């Protein structure tokens, strides 16, 4: 975005025309805070502005909007300009601003008044304090723009005594970073905050119309167990709860897009943000950046997993492995069952390599047919099946088909993780995919084909939950176990003689381990 020119900071247009255009975010910012506004707000913020201003112009109802803006991206400036907009251009009469403390809330509405006091705003819209009832640090009461306006500031947790005034209640409530990091990560404090938010704060609304705007960022995921066994658990971070609520509209963005670009390049460049992340990561604080700058609270679910420590896959498809096998995580084969995943593993130069993942949601006979076809097409000598309940009976289906077809070169083996829990096994697998802290080689290599599938599942994995969508990760957790326990069955050496041409010679992979 271009830097705002000096000319745009001067009131040099017809007053009526400029006043009308001031309803736009960039024009209002240029008029209201010319010494602060160095850059135009980018298109993403213009969308935030349009959505907020549209919701706040309602007549009846209680619209609820949650906005997740990264730390350091002019979140509070945006809110101050929004409050000014409400005073200048809407019918809203009672605006309540809530911050993490009374001091912060007082400072926010003080800055709003400073904007109303500015020469540009006074020249265009008049004097806000001509008919002033009172002007206190936490409350302003004045007649302006054809109506009586109340502007109040409160800190989170306050009793809200005195909010009901002149037979009026808030028709706009704005929560600006009203929950602190310590509060969100403490089970006791978070529960108290959420009870206060739902009870004291939200219940103070105007009975006909109130627009709630909650602006903040994510914090570390903390689970608050429900006191009612019939209700799901909630999170310590209130923005996370609002994101999951069907009653709230939310837009939550990170500082970097999927293309690796900053959402506001002039304010904080992508290069600057990436360097900041690297510094935080090396200081052992990567989770803070991911949660508060990227608004990615899910990063805490797999905080031990760092994609930058996963090496590039070093082998080409032409290299024939010394070992190869499939691992099956069976389900009941029904549409509503967990995904039925089959993973292919190659053993190359002694390394365990995940080279394929397929979802095969079919009944046992059809699954067996497809998997055996896969084995015969790609020379796979071993199939490992997770050995629990229905899964064990699946092995019997394979044995029957192999016997009927007269196939003797494919082994069926059953595996289980013993006393280790599934989530614990998956966490161990995440470590196996990364280089060690001293540069030790990973114990599990991910091919380019499977890497995005695995990463997507890691992003959603929560080790404290029992209902994760982790079918692919579950398959990966067995691969090194199968390699170690069934070294003879997985060998492909006997199949080499049946190949139409000699297997390609191994190439120099460049791997140092």
Provide key terms for this protein.
8-stranded mixed β-sheet, Rossmann fold, disordered N terminus, 6-stranded mixed β-sheet, alpha/beta, 2 domains, Nucleotidyltransferase, domain 5, 513 residues, elongated, 36% helix
Report on the architecture of this protein:
With 513 residues, the protein is of the alpha/beta class. The protein has 2 domains: 7-301, Rossmann fold (3-Layer(aba) Sandwich), CATH 3.40.50; 313-495, Nucleotidyltransferase, domain 5 (2-Layer Sandwich). The chain has helices spanning 15-21, 25-32, 43-55, 75-89, 102-117, 119-125, 181-185, 187-201, 238-244, 270-282, 286-292, 364-378, 390-405, 422-432, 451-460, 471-485, 493-496, and strands at 64-68, 94-99, 131-135, 139-144, 147-155, 172-176, 211-216, 223-224, 234-235, 249-252, 323-329, 341-348, 351-359, 382-386, 411-415, 445-446. Strands 3-4-5-2-6-7-1-10 form an 8-stranded mixed beta sheet, sandwiched between helices. The chain has a 6-stranded mixed beta sheet with strand order 15-14-11-12-13-16, sandwiched between helices. Mean pLDDT is 85; it is low at 1-12 and 496-513.
Topology:
Blueprint: H1 15-21, H2 25-32, H3 43-55, E1 64-68, H4 75-89, E2 94-99, H5 102-117, H6 119-125, E3 131-135, E4 139-144, E5 147-155, E6 172-176, H7 181-185, H8 187-201, E7 211-216, E8 223-224, E9 234-235, H9 238-244, E10 249-252, H10 270-282, H11 286-292, E11 323-329, E12 341-348, E13 351-359, H12 364-378, E14 382-386, H13 390-405, E15 411-415, H14 422-432, E16 445-446, H15 451-460, H16 471-485, H17 493-496
